Amino acid sequence: MVKTLSPREAQYDIDPVYLERWSPRSFLEKEVPEEVLLSLFEAARWAPSAYNHQPWRFILARTKEDREKVLSFLGEYNRMWCKNVPVFALILSKTENETGPIRSHAFDAGAAWGYLSLEAVRKGLATHPMTGFDFEKAREVLNIPADYAIDALIAIGYQGEKEALPPSLQERETPSARRPVKESVFEGSFGNPVK
Ligand SMILES: Cc1cc2nc3c(=O)[nH]c(=O)nc-3n(C[C@H](O)[C@H](O)[C@H](O)COP(=O)(O)O)c2cc1C
């Protein structure tokens, strides 16, 4: 074993940042400085994308008014813990351009989110991705054009105390484990285990 961060263990040598990123639900109602916030999107900017289309777009919600708009389309469960979240970022990806559909729009936006989330760890910030919201309502409320897919909503901020959450959420406020590498990696054909 290379590194232990209970219940997270790396089987092979990796940078600790991968284990340190997780998705808490308790956030402090504390402002994130603009320079720090934008550095996460700087990291996202350098993600690879097919033909360098950079299909990702982000809509930030930081003011009370903008955050209220986000809360208005969240599912009930997510609304329970999102009330204190100081920054939301809705991730969109452009689905087509002049030459036709952008097949990998969501894949590319996913890579950008991955970069963003790891830079957040470096900056002492927590992130929590969500798809538990009304996508159609979000499109309407935020005036999103039809040629942009809505991929996910990200909560961004400084992590709060577990005890600040409603009791039902406190027991889930812990980093989760993963299945072993070799259960995800096949060799030669589907389902064929790596030696
Ligand atoms: C696309 C996506 C959608 C998710 N939607 C929600 C959500 O609606 N509500 C929530 O509490 N967590 C949501 N999660 C968080 C996952 O449950 C979490 O990432 C997963 O359990 C792994 O835990 P970790 O991020 O702490 O490592 C979502 C994660 C992803 C990547």
From TrEMBL:
UniProt KW Oxidoreductase keyword: yes
Keyword set, alphabetical order: Oxidoreductase
Top-level taxon in the UniProt lineage: Bacteria
Nitroreductase domain mapped to chain residues: 20-72, 83-158
Region of interest (Disordered), residue spans: 165-195
Residue ranges with Basic and acidic residues bias: 165-185
Alphabetical list of CDD domains matching this protein: TdsD-like
Keyword Oxidoreductase applies: yes
Recorded family membership: Belongs to the nitroreductase family.
Name of the protein this chain belongs to: Nitroreductase family protein
Organism whose genome encodes this protein: Heyndrickxia faecalis
